[in-house]
Amino acid sequence: MSNQKLKIFNPYNQNLIKEIPMLGKDAVQTALEKAQELFLDRAQWIPSHKKIEILEKVQEIMKGKIEELTKTAAEEGGKPYQDSKVEVLRAINGVKIAAEEIGKLNGEQIPMGLTQASVNRIAFTTREPIGVVASISAFNHPLNLIIHQTITAFAAGCPVIVKPASTTPLSCLAFIDILQEAGVPEGWVQCLIIDNEAAEMMVTDKRVNYLSFIGSAKIGWYLKSKLAPGTRCALEHGGAAPVIVEPDANINDMIPALAKGGFYHAGQVCVSVQKVFVHESIAREVAEKIAEAGNKMVVGDPLDEKTEVGPLILPKEVDRVEEWVNEAKTKGGKILSGGKRISDTCYAPTVIFNPPLDVKVSKVEIFGPVVCVYSYNDRLEAIEQANALDYHFQAAVFTQDIDIALDTVQRLNATAVMVNDHTAFRVDWMPFGGRDASGEGLGGIPYSMHEMTREKLMVIKSKLL
User: Fold this and answer.
1) How far apart are CA 213 and CA 197, in angstroms?
2) Taking the complete model, does pTM exceed 0.90, yes or no?
3) For residues 175 and 164, what is the distance between their CA atoms, to the nearest angstrom?
4) 128 catalytic, yes or no?
5) Which tens digit of pLDDT belongs to each residue from 322-381?
6) Which is catalytic among the residues 75, 76, 236, 308?
7) Is 172 annotated as catalytic?
8) Which of 172, 270, 346, 372 is catalytic?
9) What are phi and psi of 110, to 5 degrees?
């Protein structure tokens, strides 16, 4: 047992919210033993109708705690109250989606008798739980990500052990309490407050059949390299979210979407609008209008219902964003709005016009409230620039020309391309994930549940067939 305490701070005012005990490697071993014991003993598996009943109860309890869950998420994570409430409502709907998806985890009949060697047989597949799931979560959606990484496993029939982000564990702990109240049997969903060394020990244990990881590419790809043979994984990393804007785009409709997509949660979303490539005929106008929208946004305390942009998760992230923006400015990028810290914890919504392609804001994920606008005169060259980075997640194109839209969708290297909408659009039943350096595997509740099961084929031989 570790004697360490994890201190949880409010990212806006740096006040200590709570101290919670950290667990050690012994707790990891105990959790793994319990999870594996549940999985190996089919008598302890929870029938589908019972899982649905429990998940319906979870939804009801959550509906009675919307305000409490919203304030917990906003206070520990810094996402403004209004957006944190949307997250809580999404989380409740996510539990509903998972309950509905249980009945869709089905197999199919495989035809037999197509050759002489396959006569007198009938064959079909079923889907079984993959086994023990280990989930490592991120700070930026402290409740909804936990839903995606635990409820999917539970609904698929897998015992799951989750490690929440060290900056935002309170939403996860509150959710674990809700699961217990709803009647989830002991051991099926376990939460461990552990350090990175213990977390690595957990996910690389051979008893783990599936890793769900949301976080930095460096850590995710490292953990994948250490997984036990046969362990599957879903890795969700960052992106640079490029947008192509054609001269016929509807600017009035587009600006609110791009501003929201870029500055929502202070840009701390893996598909935040970051690089906007705009035709030169309207590039400066679009950049100035995004800047104007950013200037009007209320930046400050996430618990204030009027706040639209909250703090970055840690003060050192403000330092980093400031350094990157200053680099872009020094090398010729034009700062149209923001470009400065508001406090030790908040950075102003910032628009940079035509920053060089060799500075950090152009090359890597910013994860801050900064949007870069680049002018172009050749759409194909803009797409080539958009595809030039190693990160490929979600992208967007704004145009009224359906042929241009379809052509751009095909040419952009991304797992999802939005047409006339911002890159951060997401609903929880759609496939969601990065490709190339941005990740592997698919999120989205139905897709995660499918990945957390595996097929088994049964072939019956009978002379009567």
Assistant:
1) 15
2) yes
3) 11
4) no
5) 999 999 999 999 999 999 999 999 999 999 999 999 999 999 999 999 999 999 999 999
6) 236
7) no
8) 270
9) -105, 120
